[in-house]
Design a protein that fits this description.
The protein has about 290 residues and is α+β, with helices and mostly antiparallel strands. It is built from 8 helices and 10 strands.
Length: about 290
C-alpha cells in the first residue's frame, strides 16, 4: 500500500465550489452547515476524489487512465482535518489494475475515520486502453414521494470546461497527470488532446445534485462512475441525473447519472445515492424539476 497526507481548508472548499459550480451550503455556508447534522462545513465528495486521483498519478505513474471509480462517503471531512490517502493494488489483468482506494481522517484519539472509500479500475501508463461498456439504469421499488420528489424526476446542466479550468484543477489539487495538462502527452496516450480530469467531470453531478435535484443541502453517500470516453476542453458537456428510487424512512434518494457530449457520445455513466435530510427547502422541490 502507498499513501500520502494532506489538509483541506475552507478556501479549498470554496475554490472547488467555484470550479465545479457546486455551492451547496453544506460545503460553503458555515452558518447553514452549523445547523445541519454535520455541525460544520464539509468537503465535496469530488474534492476527496481528486485526492485519490493525485495519488494515482504519483503512485501508479503519470499517464495513468481511470476507467471506473466507486466511492462511499461514510463520514464527513471537515475544515482542517488531517487526511490520509491510500491506494492498494489488489489485482492486474493485461495492464488493467484493480485498486482499493481510501481517504481517512485522523480522529481526536488518533484513530483513522474513513471518509471516502471505494475501488478503482485503472490502466497503467504503458498499457493499451480498453473500451468500457455502458450499463442499464433499471427502475427500483421504493416510495412514491419524498419532500416533493418523485421517481422519474430529472435535472441537468451543460458546461464547457476551458484550459484555464483544467489548470485551476491542477493548481488546487496538486494532480499533475500530464494527460490533463499537455496536448502532446495526451496524444501519446491515445487521446486527441488533453482531457478533462475525472473529478471535474464527476463534479458536474455534484453541481446538479447539490443545487437542483434533490437540491441545496443534499449530502452525497455513494457514487459509481464509469468513464466510457474522454472529454476535452472546449466541448459542451451535459450532465443529467434522474431519480430511480426514494426511501422515505431513511431520507435517501437513488439516481442514475450520465454525462454526454454534443455529438451524443457517453462520457461518464453511473449511479448516485444521496441523503436529503438537510435540504434547504424541502417543499421547494414541488416547484422544481418535473418527471421526465
Amino acid at each position: 500500500m502507498s499513501s500520502y497526507q494532506c489538509v483541506l481548508l475552507q478556501a479549498d472548499f470554496d475554490r472547488f465550489a467555484k470550479l465545479t459550480g457546486d455551492d451547496n451550503p453544506i460545503h460553503c455556508d458555515p452558518d447553514f452547515a452549523a445547523k445541519s447534522h454535520f455541525g460544520g462545513t464539509v468537503a465535496h465528495g469530488m474534492l476527496l476524489y481528486s485526492c485519490i486521483c493525485k495519488a494515482l498519478t504519483e503512485q501508479i505513474g503519470p499517464g495513468v487512465v481511470q476507467l471506473e471509480q466507486t466511492l462511499m462517503f461514510p463520514n464527513p471531512t471537515y475544515v482542517g482535518d488531517r487526511l490520509h490517502v491510500a491506494l492498494r493494488v489488489e489485482g492486474e489483468t493485461e495492464g488493467t489494475l484493480d485498486i482499493a482506494t481510501e481517504v481517512t481522517r485522523v480522529g481526536a484519539d488518533g484513530t483513522a475515520i474513513p471518509t471516502a472509500i471505494g475501488r478503482c479500475r485503472a490502466v497503467a501508463p504503458d498499457a493499451t486502453l480498453p473500451a468500457v461498456a455502458p450499463a442499464p439504469h433499471p427502475a427500483e421499488r421504493g416510495d412514491a414521494e419524498l419532500y416533493g420528489l418523485h421517481p422519474g424526476m430529472s435535472a441537468g446542466s451543460t458546461r464547457v470546461f476551458s484550459a484555464i479550468d483544467l489548470d485551476e484543477y491542477g493548481d488546487l489539487t496538486g494532480d499533475r497527470n500530464p494527460i490533463f495538462r499537455d496536448d502532446a502527452e495526451a496524444r501519446a496516450r491515445g487521446f486527441k488532446r488533453r482531457i478533462v480530469p475525472w473529478p471535474l467531470l464527476a463534479g458536474m453531478f455534484s453541481d446538479v445534485l447539490g443545487t437542483q435535484l434533490p437540491g441545496r443541502g443534499t449530502g452525497w453517500m455513494k457514487q459509481a462512475l464509469r468513464f466510457q470516453s474522454a472529454a476535452h476542453p472546449g466541448e459542451a458537456l451535459t450532465a443529467t441525473v434522474a431519480i430511480t428510487r426514494l426511501r422515505a424512512d431513511k431520507e435517501l434518494v437513488n439516481l442514475s447519472t450520465r454525462i454526454t457530449a454534443a455529438d451524443e457520445r457517453v462520457i461518464c455513466d453511473g449511479e448516485a445515492l444521496v441523503l436529503v435530510r438537510n435540504l434547504e427547502n424541502k417543499l421547494g422541490n414541488k416547484r422544481g424539476p418535473r418527471p421526465a
